[in-house]
């Protein structure tokens, strides 16, 4: 009887101790967050303090819920994590948002296949690395030329055609300035031709093609040490690039290709011709150059 009584008396005490142990366990282990409390990232308490230690000034601020150090990207950030005011941030490696907008471009000169632009310089605390010339594609814009100065010549344009062109500046970290206003440029017409150059696509594949150019000499004397210049036409965002050439040596800048002869094609006999072959990158739809320049003469494309 006494044993049963002692057991009955211990029941409420045991239950109370179990309840207290459970409550203390929740407190020790961090507890269950009250209703409406926001979840914290792993390793932090509700005050926003890192459980590992304090941040140094270069990674965002000190512990305790306040962010106030210098950003490694060059700007600064400040403010209370828990909902206070925050300071401005900056994005570029030089401590500024990026280059300032260059001056609006103006047209200096045009040819049947090129436009030369100039503009006032941009500024950037880290220095301006380059300027890109972009043109309006109708549903956006695409880069068609670059320059490290405030003048650029865009090549590979179509004769007697109009283009909306603008400029953007970039710093060494790759941050871009706002785009300038558009300037409308119209290329010149093809001048009267005094010769012709044959051009054909020998074979074509998805990302390239083989081309061939034939230079005839309809005169009565040989043509020696000739130089041939042509422009691959710009097809919106795509431009052909010569990979290899035989019968001549090439230099390409933008869309413009300059060809000088190989030793065995350096002389074009009267009434004869020479043929230059090449392989170039492509997009499966290749357009012939609108015209060629041979020496000082303008040659029609045939």
| Coarse structural class | mainly beta
User: Approximately what portion of the residues adopt beta-strand conformation?
Assistant: 35-45%
**Gyration radius, to the nearest Å?**
36 Å
H/E topology pattern: HEEEEEEEEEEEEEEEEEEEE
How much helix, percentage-wise, in residues?
under 10%
The name of the CATH topology of one domain is Immunoglobulin-like
Give a short account of the largest sheet: 9 strands, mixed
Helix tally equals: 1
Oligomer: single chain
Give the distance, in angstroms, between the N- and C-terminal Cα atoms: 123 Å
CATH architecture of one domain: Sandwich
CATH class term of one domain: Mainly Beta
Number of strands: 20
Describe what this molecule looks like in 3D.
The structure is a single chain. The protein has 302 residues and is mainly β. Helix content is 9%, strand content 36%. The protein has one helix at 2-28, and strands at residues 66-67, 79-80, 106-110, 115-118, 128-136, 141-147, 151-154, 162-171, 183-186, 195-205, 208-216, 223-224, 228-231, 242-246, 248-253, 256-261, 267-268, 273-281, 291-294, 297-301. Among the domains are: 106-186, Immunoglobulin-like (Sandwich), CATH 2.60.40; 195-301, Immunoglobulin-like, CATH 2.60.40.290.
């Amino acid at each position: 009887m006494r044993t049963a009584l002692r057991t009955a008396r211990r029941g409420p005490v045991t239950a109370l101790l179990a309840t207290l142990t459970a409550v203390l366990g929740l407190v020790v282990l961090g507890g269950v967050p009250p209703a409406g409390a926001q979840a914290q990232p792993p390793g932090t308490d509700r005050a926003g303090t890192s459980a590992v230690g304090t941040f140094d000034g270069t990674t965002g601020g000190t512990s305790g819920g306040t962010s106030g150090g210098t950003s490694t990207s060059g700007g600064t950030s400040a403010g209370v994590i828990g909902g206070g005011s925050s300071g401005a941030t900056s994005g570029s490696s030089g401590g500024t948002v990026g280059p300032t907008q260059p001056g609006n471009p103006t047209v200096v000169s045009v040819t049947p296949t090129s436009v030369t632009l100039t503009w006032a310089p941009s500024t950037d605390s880290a220095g301006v690395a380059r300027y890109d010339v972009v043109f309006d594609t109708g549903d956006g814009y695409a880069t068609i030329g670059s320059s490290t100065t405030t003048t650029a010549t865009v090549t590979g344009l179509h004769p007697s055609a109009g283009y909306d062109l603008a400029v953007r500046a970039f710093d060494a970290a790759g941050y871009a300035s706002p785009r300038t206003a558009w300037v409308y440029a119209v290329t010149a017409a093809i001048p009267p031709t005094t010769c012709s150059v044959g051009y054909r696509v020998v074979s074509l594949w998805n990302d390239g093609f083989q081309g061939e150019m034939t230079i005839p000499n309809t005169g009565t004397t040989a043509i020696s040490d000739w130089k041939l210049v042509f422009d691959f036409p710009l097809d919106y965002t795509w431009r052909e690039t010569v990979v290899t050439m035989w019968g001549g040596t090439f230099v390409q800048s933008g869309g413009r290709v300059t060809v000088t002869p190989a030793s065995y094609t350096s002389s074009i006999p009267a009434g004869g011709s020479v043929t230059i072959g090449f392989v170039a990158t492509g997009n499966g739809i290749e357009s012939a150059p609108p015209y060629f320049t041979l020496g000082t003469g303008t040659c029609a494309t045939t």
